[in-house]
């Protein structure tokens, strides 16, 4: 392995199963993940991006230590915050210009008011926030001609290959005395979501699960997905569950205890995926 330093990053070069790889840490949050991914793609000739790490969980059917493989990712913190007094039937500011939309849906803060009687009339000055798609300017498109994207799919070939990992055995113990009650598994899920927010709120966790059917909740993956979409580069993400966002059962929010286990499980899955990718590339080289 050798290392190149640049732009505040270390790019580590090596191989996994004869497949050349570059390893780089994104750092915390959407902006760091986006910058790092763009640096990677602008500096090197990259076949595809395999992103991995830990995440909170919004899906009640999953457990700590599970490694999720979402088919779609979205950034769920680009909002149009509607003025107080307006409602779902009222046009958003700049909606007429095509800058914003009501197609994805909204969060109504008044629905989460507490300590009121059932007969009380109540509202909330925070009103509503409407979820918005990102503006994307594809590298192969017309400069400054925007497209919009909310749910970004992972690469179809990568996702197909990842299904070979569903029976992979994962670690369930931090040490000889600290083990999970449920054996971790690799699982395909429909959607994951990202925002530069550490989500530790059960009400919002339940809302985004009911609204969007998301499973992993993290702070970076959607940024990587959006950059890869813009650059037309294959992408997939593996996220291991370290906690149930906002708490729940006795083990559900023990991120401090199980973060290392979740991180190790995500690495195990990524290494096996690269092996699958290497084998697929090898076989493809013999197909005329």
Automatic annotation (TrEMBL):
Residues 7-275 form the Nucleoside phosphorylase domain. Gene3D superfamilies: Nucleoside phosphorylase domain. The chain crosses the membrane at residues 21-41. Keywords: Membrane, Transmembrane, Transmembrane helix. It comes from the Eukaryota. The keyword Membrane applies. The keyword Nucleotide-binding does not apply. GO terms for biological process: nucleoside metabolic process. It holds the Pfam family PNP_UDP_1. GO terms for molecular function: catalytic activity. SUPFAM superfamilies: Purine and uridine phosphorylases. This is Nucleoside phosphorylase domain-containing protein. It comes from Vitis rotundifolia.
């Amino acid at each position: 392995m050798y290392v190149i330093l640049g732009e505040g990053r270390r790019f580590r070069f090596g191989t996994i199963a004869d497949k050349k790889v570059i390893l780089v840490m994104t750092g915390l949050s959407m902006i760091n993940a986006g910058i790092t991914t763009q640096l990677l793609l602008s500096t090197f000739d990259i076949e595809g991006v395999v992103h991995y790490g830990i995440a909170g969980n919004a899906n009640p059917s999953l457990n700590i230590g599970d490694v999720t493989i979402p088919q779609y990712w979205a950034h769920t913190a680009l909002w149009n915050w509607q003025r107080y007094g307006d409602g779902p039937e009222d046009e958003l500011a700049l909606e007429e210009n095509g800058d914003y939309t009501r197609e994805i849906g909204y969060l109504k803060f008044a629905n989460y008011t507490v300590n009121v009687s059932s007969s009380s009339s109540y509202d909330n000055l925070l009103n509503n926030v409407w979820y918005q798609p990102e503006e994307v300017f594809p590298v192969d498109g017309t400069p400054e001609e925007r497209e919009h994207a909310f749910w970004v799919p992972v690469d179809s070939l990568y996702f197909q290959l990842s299904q070979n990992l569903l029976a992979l055995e994962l670690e369930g113990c931090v040490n000889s005395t600290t083990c999970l009650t449920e054996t971790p598994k690799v699982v395909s899920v429909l959607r994951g979501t990202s925002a530069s927010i550490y989500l530790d709120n059960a009400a919002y966790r339940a809302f985004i699960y009911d609204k969007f059917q998301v499973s992993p909740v993290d702070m970076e993956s959607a940024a990587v997905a959006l950059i890869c979409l813009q650059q037309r580069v294959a992408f997939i993400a593996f996220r291991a569950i370290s906690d149930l966002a906002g708490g729940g059962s006795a083990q559900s929010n023990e991120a401090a205890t199980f973060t290392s286990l979740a991180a190790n499980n995500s690495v195990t899955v990524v290494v096996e995926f690269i092996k699958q990718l290497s084998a697929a590339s090898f076989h493809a080289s013999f197909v005329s």
